Fold this sequence. Notes:
By secondary structure, the protein is of the alpha+beta class. The chain has two domains: 3-228, Rossmann fold (3-Layer(aba) Sandwich), CATH 3.40.50; 235-352, no CATH class. It has eleven helices and 19 strands. It has helices spanning 42-50, 72-75, 92-102, 107-120, 136-148, 166-183, 194-200, 218-223, 228-233, 248-251, 257-260; strands at residues 3-10, 19-26, 31-35, 57-62, 65-66, 77-81, 154-158, 187-191, 203-208, 211-216, 240-243, 265-268, 273-274, 282-296, 299-306, 309-313, 325-331, 335-338, 344-347. Strands 6-7-8-3-9-10 form a six-stranded mixed sheet, with helices on both faces. Strands 13-17-14-15-16 form a five-stranded antiparallel sheet, with no helix packed on it. Strand 18 and strand 19 (344-347) form a beta hairpin. Helix 3 crosses helix 4 (107-120), helix 3 packs parallel to helix 5 and helix 4 crosses helix 5. It is elongated and about 75 Å long. The two termini are 33 Å apart.
Amino acid sequence: MKVTFKDVTLSYDGKIDTLKHLNFEIPDGSLVSLLGPSGGGKTTTLNLISGLLPATSGHIYFGDEDVTKKDALARKVGMVFQNYSLYPHLSVRDNIAFPLKMQHVSRKERYAKAEELAKLVHVDDQLDKKPGELSGGQQQRVAIARALAKSPSLLLLDEPLSNLDARLRIEMRQEIRRIQRETGVTTIFVTHDQDEALHISDNIMVLSFGKIQQFSAPDDLYERPSNLFVAKFIGEPVINTLPAETLKADLQGHVPDEIFAKAVTAGLRSEALVPFDNGQGILTTFHATLAYKQKYGREATAALNYNGQTLLSTEMAGLPADQKEGDFFITKAGFFLFDEAGALIFGGEAHDQ
Ligand SMILES: Nc1ncnc2c1ncn2[C@@H]1O[C@H](COP(=O)(O)OP(=O)(O)O)[C@@H](O)[C@H]1O
Ligand SMILES: [Mg+2]
């Protein structure tokens, strides 16, 4: 089911707008993540989609139908939460079948559906157990199966993996992707974890301060962040930022003057600072001293001192150990300029190729 928001605003207290004029379209059959820091408005947005929360203004459409005034039951969404919220006294079979029981579907039919869904989420060998006898990952599989029982218009998941340990989170995010592909159900997945969002989504909506900061394909967030917030939020290590003015001499002739005049902040990904021109598209050169080099496992980082700023590079592993300074290169990919409002005004060429 396609979901469209037209100028949707939400205020909890009638004074402050928690969500400000949201406009977006989630294509039918896709998996979209809502990604952002805590308090950014992810759960609020999800609750507006589900109908648990009425919009203060604006319109919400499922397909071509205006559902703004429809309640959660009428919207027929399936929901999964961080804490599983299974019924502890019911078996796995009865938990999955529960929504169908509420709809007075016959016992035979609802158990057949429960078994089919248990197979889909790989808990078909656990049907007679109680939730308390299952691992966290298995419980979340059961919760997903239950959410799918009513053949929902949408599957909504609010930080479903946050209670699981790191290894299981990786396994489960792949499972959610697989289940979404197999069922084709339009899925909206809330997370504050960029890695999670980048790995499973067709598209990612970055939400912060109640606004959509960017809504695009995962690679675009990294290669062409629309603003400084996204540039700093996505990527590990965090992008180097410095006053654009610092780079003025080295950018002269490489960035159009009228663009540079508006630039306030420069962003340089750590892999955009390289020791040699190896043909990957060089923007300019700069002279810097090496503050330190560090190596852990496969990763080597170096800190460069440049015009009073420190820049982190992950590409300096090949330099001689005793090298103290040198002329280095900035690649076009991973170099950005932002204006006073934080909007991207230069860079993102990697995307154009
Ligand atoms: N029921 C509520 N009443 C009042 N304010 C709320 C309520 N729920 C959330 N908020 C506020 O709305 C903002 C967004 O919250 P939320 O949507 O839960 O963010 P997220 O899920 O991204 O962490 C926060 O400032 C939060 O304090
Ligand atoms: Mg939340």
